[in-house]
Design goal:
Elements lengths: L1 E5 L18 H10 L3 E13 L3 E13 L2 E7 L4 E7 L2 E13 L5 E14 L3 E3 L2 E3 L12 E11 L2 E10 L2 E2 L7 E2 L2 E15 L2 E11 L7 E4 L4 E2 L7 E3 L4 E9 L1
Parallel strand pairs: 4-17
Antiparallel strand pairs: 1-2, 2-3, 3-6, 4-5, 6-7, 7-10, 8-9, 10-11, 11-14, 12-13, 14-15, 15-19, 16-18
Length: about 250
């Protein structure tokens, strides 16, 4: 169990959850009178098991966020107004589990699954209007996430493959816009040559990111999330990329 408090952020560029990053003095004065520091209570419990062929763990948790300050954009499509809103109270409850199998030497197979239910617990009255947020899902965060990873090491060589799933994420605070879930897979090879003359730990690797060249939205809300609708920016996820590296020390 833990309690934490967060000091007000100071951001010179208007990109943080800071009451100093709003766009005009009137909005700052209005928010200064109402804002309170954010605080959180977190309760967590879990279990871990380890043997030669199996490693497993499971965790459940609940978090209560009190007076969280979140950046939001209200107003019209052509004239959005940025402000930082005290959302009063947010509840997050979730669980995650992981299993790693090592049936033979050098082979590892891992699967991880997590679920999180995060909701706003009160309605919000802002400069741009009144919004019935109570019970709405939190933005930018998927309820479900899953990862599978397979790797095999033989002598100096290692090969790996992993795939990650991120579930649907809500984009607007009122949950009327969202982006769908997506998969991203990666693969790679690495070979460790060891020491070569004055060069130590010579290693060469080659990796492919987004192996199947899936299209997806990676980042959103960096210019504030809208209260309703869809008028802020999103960033497309990277296409298939190849990385080759040779490293050493001396």
């Amino acid at each position: 169990m833990a309690e934490n408090m967060r000091a007000y952020e100071v951001s010179a560029f208007g990109v943080g959850n800071s009451i100093y990053s709003v766009q005009d003095q009137a909005t700052f004065q209005a928010q200064k009178r109402a804002a309170e520091p954010s605080k959180a209570w977190v309760y967590l419990g879990g279990y871990r098991y380890t043997s030669r062929y199996l490693q497993a763990n499971a965790t459940i948790y609940h978090a209560s966020l009190i007076h969280p300050l979140l950046a939001a954009a209200v107003g019209s499509l052509t004239n959005p107004v940025s402000q930082v809103i005290d959302f009063g109270h947010i509840s997050m409850t979730g669980a995650n589990g992981a299993i790693t199998l090592t049936p033979i030497r050098g082979l590892s197979f891992t699967n991880t699954l997590s679920y999180n239910k995060g909701t706003y617990d009160r309605n919000v009255d802002t400069v741009g209007g009144y919004y019935g947020l109570s019970g709405k899902n939190i933005v930018n965060y998927p309820a479900w996430m899953y990862k599978t990873a397979l790797s095999y090491t033989w002598k100096g060589a290692t090969a790996h493959f992993d795939a990650n799933y991120f579930g649907r994420r809500y984009y607007s605070f009122m949950n009327d816009t969202s982006v769908p879930g997506y998969w991203v897979a990666n693969a790679g090879l690495e070979y460790r040559f060891g020491d070569m003359s004055v060069l130590k730990n010579v290693t060469a690797s080659f990796n492919v990111y987004n192996l199947f060249n899936n299209k997806y939205i990676s980042m959103m809300g960096q210019n504030d999330n809208p209260a309703v609708g869809d008028y802020q920016s999103m960033e497309r996820g990277a296409v298939r990329e190849f990385f080759g590296t040779v490293s050493t020390s001396f």
